[in-house]
Write a structure and sequence with these properties.
The chain is of the alpha+beta class and 70 residues long. The chain has one domain. It contains four helices and four strands. The strands form two sheets. The protein has a two-stranded antiparallel sheet with strand order 1-2. Strands 3-4 form a two-stranded antiparallel ribbon.
């Protein structure tokens, strides 16, 4: 079985995947597969990220820390 999920990665200096939404560490991924079982639509993903401080500026995504400086 192949499943797909979506994640947003910060376009600032964290572009290598250090900062992402939703934040799922390896242990969480093993325990809960909710993002794979019920993946969010891109629209829902962006809405949920916005609720916790992520911003999209000129087509780029910024984590809450980087969004403060933009």
């Amino acid at each position: 079985m192949i499943r797909t999920t979506r994640a947003i990665f910060c376009d600032q200096d964290h572009g290598n995947g250090d900062v992402m939404f939703p934040e799922l560490d390896y242990a969480e991924r093993l325990e809960t597969h909710q993002e794979f079982i019920n993946p969010r639509s891109i629209r829902q993903l962006r809405e949920d990220a916005k609720k916790v401080g992520w911003k999209r500026i000129k087509g780029l995504d910024y984590c809450p820390t980087c969004a403060e400086s933009e």
